Amino acid sequence: MNNMTVQIPTEEEIVARATQMIPWLREKADAVEKARMVPEDTIQAFQEAGFFRILQPKRWGGYEMNPNVLNKVLIELARGCPSSAWNVMVLGVHPFEVGLLDNTVGDELWSDDNSRLISSSYAPFGTVKAVEGGYILNGEWLTSSGCDHAAGGAFLGGRVADAEGNMEFRSFWVQRSDFEIEDDWFVVGLAGTGSKKLLINEVFVPAYRSHVIGDYCDETHGHVNNLYKMPFFGVFYSAVSSVIIGMAKGMADLYIEHMVPRQNLNQAVGAAVNDPFIKGKLGEAQAKITGAEARVLMNTEEAWKYASKGELVPTDVRVRTFATNQFTGGDCFEAAHMIFKKTSTRGVWLSSPMQRQLRDILVGANHITQNQDNIGELLGGQMLGNPLPQPNPFGVKAQ
């Protein structure tokens, strides 16, 4: 598969493919939630559209595009089905992570089938022990979205002591034959993501299949292609944020469709479109959604300005983008909840797609990448000249 020729679509072409899928995905969204996983035919449609190749290295048939291409695709897909878009986000980000590792990993993963997908579970639920030549993983890793479709295995997170005895947070590529899946994904929202538990029993992972999780580290940056000089957390966090933005835009879509034909039976204004509060809340919600979208796309573009030229992104840019992306979930949930309240009792029926959309946004906003309560102090402190805490996710060592 090395150096193979691939027909790479333009950004406009691949984003248009996502936009065209919105009605189809919306029709399937209820069934996806009930099945608690995205169906195989939807994943296959995403494969054919090239969504999983956006961040995949060209060496193995990928496109190596600007991460904002994936972000824009995710925004469109989430307007139709949040759970399906979430699977594209998770399964579509991990080819980027392969680009950080030794080429041996990509060869092992994609040499005979470059469409294999990888899921993940980064929270260090299980245990990791350093041994000669690698690591031993054992235990349970929760919430691995899209794992049923991940024939390429999973990236698992764990804490382990380095050579100096300091604890570091690492990611480990584990092959699909080395874990079992336990279906425990019974949740209030994003039920269709199939984010099930992975069971690992004393699995050896060679050292070359692992890297320190963070924006930058000596073992993964410097020798890689330009795309992979992007901060890992910047790419990952912006992708999650993009799905949530798309969910909120989908909520606005549904709200408009609901309100345009509606008549207010107990108010003098008659048509709902003439109600100043209905109009006002929609406008305010749209401002929040637009602001969140502009911020995430701008953050990615600012980092890309450096990486696309083969340069490492400056620390202040990494900190600012990492931090400000995390306010997306709060902004989008506020926007969605604001207009949901104006649907009155009509929005609360299980037959209404708006209640599902709101629950999906609620769960998306609970993701660790949207931890706005804890991040403002780090950003503000860095802007005021405070040293970054040790350890930190930016690869910055104490001076």
TrEMBL record:
The keyword Oxidoreductase applies. InterPro entries: Acyl-CoA_DH_C, Acyl-CoA_Oxase/DH_mid-dom_sf, AcylCo_DH-like_C, AcylCoA_DH/ox_N, AcylCoA_DH/ox_N_sf, AcylCoA_DH/oxidase_NM_dom_sf. Transmembrane segments: none annotated. Residues 240-371 form the Acyl-CoA dehydrogenase C-terminal domain. It comes from the Bacteria. Residues 26-89 form the Acyl-CoA dehydrogenase/oxidase N-terminal domain. Keywords: Oxidoreductase. Pfam families: Acyl-CoA_dh_2, Acyl-CoA_dh_N. This is Acyl-CoA dehydrogenase family protein. The lineage of its organism: Bacteria, Pseudomonadati, Pseudomonadota, Gammaproteobacteria, Oceanospirillales.
